[in-house]
C-alpha cells in the first residue's frame, strides 16, 4: 500500500482527493491536514510515502512545510507533491528547490492524480518534459546567473550527459533510447548521480542542473535538443 497524507485548507478538496485515492487497491489516505503546521506534525507521526501538499495555506504554507519535511532526516523516504491552482504558480519553482518531487494542478484528471502518486512513491519526479522546460524557463530565469560550482566535478562525462537529459524531463527509458543504452543502465546512471550529488530525486536533479549552470533556462525554454 502507498500511504498518502492530504494537506489542503479546503475540506471539499481533501474530500474529493480522498474519494479518488481510497478507491485504489494500492493507495490509502492515512490522514488529512488543514495547514502546513499540521501537515508537518502528521508527517512526522505517520511517515506517509507521499504528501499531497497545497502550496497556499494560511499560517505555515506548503512551501515552508515542504522545506521542513525534506530537511528532516527521519523523513528521508517521504515524497511531497505540490498542489497548485495554476500550472505556473509563482511558488512552484521554490517548492522544487525546497525538495518537492513534483506538482499537480488541482483540477487534474483523477487518473493523472493516481498516476502521480504512484510515480512519486516509487522515487521518480512528477515532471513532464514540457512542464519542466516551462517551469525552469519561467522561474529559474528570474534567479541570479548560475555560477558553476564544484559539485558536478564528481560526475563522469557520461553522467553529466545523463544529468542534462534528466533536466529536460526525459524518463530512464527515453534516456536509454537517446544514448543507446539499456533502461537498466540508464537507471543505474541516474541513481549514481543522485548518490554523488546527494539529491533525493529527479526533481532535485533538475533544479541542480540549472543552478550549477549545466543547462540554462533559455535553452530549455526553446525546447532545443541537448
TrEMBL record:
One term of GO molecular function: DNA binding
PANTHER family given in the database record: TRANSCRIPTIONAL REGULATORY PROTEIN NARL-RELATED, TWO-COMPONENT RESPONSE REGULATOR
InterPro entries: CheY-like_superfamily, NreC/VraR/RcsB-like_REC, Sig_transdc_resp-reg_C-effctor, Sig_transdc_resp-reg_receiver, Tscrpt_reg_LuxR_C, WalR-like
Transcription regulation keyword on record: yes
Domain HTH luxR-type: from-to ranges: 148-213
Keywords: DNA-binding, Phosphoprotein, Transcription, Transcription regulation
Biological processes annotated in GO: phosphorelay signal transduction system; regulation of DNA-templated transcription
Organism, scientific name: Allostreptomyces psammosilenae
CDD domains for this protein: LuxR_C_like, REC_NarL-like
Pfam families xref list: GerE, Response_reg
All residue ranges annotated as the Response regulatory domain in the record: 3-121
Modified sites of kind 4-aspartylphosphate: 54
Domain of life, per lineage: Bacteria
Name the UniProt record assigns to this protein: DNA-binding NarL/FixJ family response regulator
Keyword DNA-binding: yes
Amino acid at each position: 500500500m502507498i500511504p498518502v497524507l492530504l494537506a489542503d485548507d479546503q475540506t471539499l478538496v481533501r474530500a474529493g482527493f480522498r474519494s479518488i485515492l481510497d478507491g485504489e487497491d494500492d493507495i490509502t489516505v492515512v490522514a488529512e491536514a488543514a495547514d502546513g503546521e499540521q501537515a508537518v506534525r502528521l508527517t512526522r507521526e505517520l511517515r506517509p510515502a507521499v504528501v499531497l501538499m497545497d502550496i497556499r495555506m494560511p499560517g505555515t504554507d506548503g512551501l515552508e512545510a515542504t522545506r521542513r519535511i525534506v530537511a528532516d532526516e527521519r523523513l528521508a523516504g517521504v515524497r511531497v507533491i505540490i498542489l497548485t491552482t495554476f500550472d505556473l504558480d509563482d511558488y512552484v519553482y521554490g517548492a522544487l528547490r525546497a525538495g518537492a518531487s513534483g506538482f499537480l494542478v488541482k483540477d487534474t484528471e483523477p487518473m493523472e492524480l493516481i498516476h502521480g502518486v504512484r510515480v512519486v512513491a516509487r522515487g521518480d519526479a512528477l515532471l513532464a518534459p514540457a512542464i519542466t522546460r516551462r517551469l525552469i524557463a519561467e522561474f529559474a530565469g528570474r534567479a541570479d546567473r548560475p555560477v558553476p560550482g564544484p559539485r558536478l566535478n564528481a560526475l563522469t562525462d557520461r553522467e553529466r550527459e545523463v544529468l542534462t537529459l534528466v533536466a529536460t524531463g526525459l524518463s530512464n527509458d527515453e534516456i536509454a533510447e537517446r544514448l543507446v543504452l539499456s533502461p537498466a543502465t540508464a537507471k543505474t546512471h541516474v541513481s549514481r548521480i543522485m548518490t554523488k550529488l546527494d539529491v533525493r530525486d529527479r526533481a532535485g536533479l533538475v533544479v541542480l542542473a540549472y543552478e550549477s549552470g549545466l543547462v540554462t533556462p533559455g535553452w530549455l525554454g526553446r525546447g532545443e535538443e541537448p
